[in-house]
């Protein structure tokens, strides 16, 4: 018997399209870890502005004499990825005061724009695992970061953890002589740091700076790929990883309070204390001299996930 053409075509189309619809409807598969529970995450699976229930934005000139003007419109979610874009564009500074001693007011214009997202007031945590999968811009002048700040005590008393920073330093600061640096004024590095308030009241640091060539010598295409940064935080240590390679392990007791009224921002039972998450792309300052031909700069984040020990979450 001859099979009717229309039902046959319909069956063929259904068979071909069914796997696509199934895949589109499946939720993102998030790994589980023994003894840990996923307590907060953003998979960036909804196009448009970042989820305001999870993130707030910084605005204007903020820190480190950086060149960029932070504004929300430089961050968007597209195709399952958060895109933070650094642009070369002139923006007037509404706080401009030519006679001010504050560098944030001295500048009449910003020549670059970018975005900084914070989970401040939306989510913070004490101990656990933070995972971020991202692809970072590495052009001269770019300074992408994944970091946390304490929600109490101010800076540096509240502590800071730099899960990832990329920027440039003079060769001499890495122990490299001028003739060995091929006449390069600065060298790119990956950093894994923690900061707290020292005995003199100033910021104290535990820093690990890894030459960028440590990664690109093994994989020349490293910068074109996504990579996973991780912080494992316990009362004893903060361990910082890049693609499962341990970059820095910071003993938390070294941040013990040295001044009356202070507390250890990495190991404390202080009520309500925790660290919130920041994702930002700075331009200039420690990022080095800016390469204007490299714009726009694109910093892409696939997901942010926080796990905590199941005994703690229960």
* Fraction of residues in helix: 10-25%
Query: How many separate domains make up the residues?
Result: 1
Computed over alpha carbons, the radius of gyration is 23 Å
Structure class: mainly beta
General shape: globular
Number of strands: 17
**Can you tell me the residue ranges where pLDDT is under 50 for at least 5 consecutive residues?**
1-26
Count of separate DSSP helical elements: 4
Q: Supply the CATH architecture.
A: Sandwich
Strand percentage lies at 35-45%
What is the distance, rounded to the nearest whole angstrom, between the alpha carbons of the first and last residues?
A: 65 Å
Task: Give an overview of the whole structure.
By secondary structure, the protein is mostly beta strands. It has one domain (30-313): Jelly Rolls (Sandwich). It is 11% helix and 40% strand. It is built from 4 helices and 17 strands. The strands form 2 sheets. Strands 1, 3, 4, 5, 6, 8, 13, 14, 15 and 17 form a 10-stranded mixed beta sheet that branches. Strand 4 and strand 5 (81-92) form a beta hairpin. The longest helix has 21 residues, at 5-25. The model is unreliable at 1-26 (pLDDT under 50).
Topology:
Elements: H1 5-25, E1 36-42, E2 56-57, E3 68-70, E4 75-78, E5 81-92, H2 103-106, E6 109-114, E7 116-118, E8 128-135, E9 142-150, E10 160-169, E11 187-197, E12 203-211, H3 213-216, E13 227-233, E14 237-242, E15 245-251, E16 275-283, E17 297-309, H4 310-313
Parallel strand pairs: 3-6
Antiparallel strand pairs: 1-17, 2-7, 4-5, 5-6, 5-17, 7-16, 8-13, 8-17, 9-10, 9-16, 10-11, 11-12, 13-14, 14-15
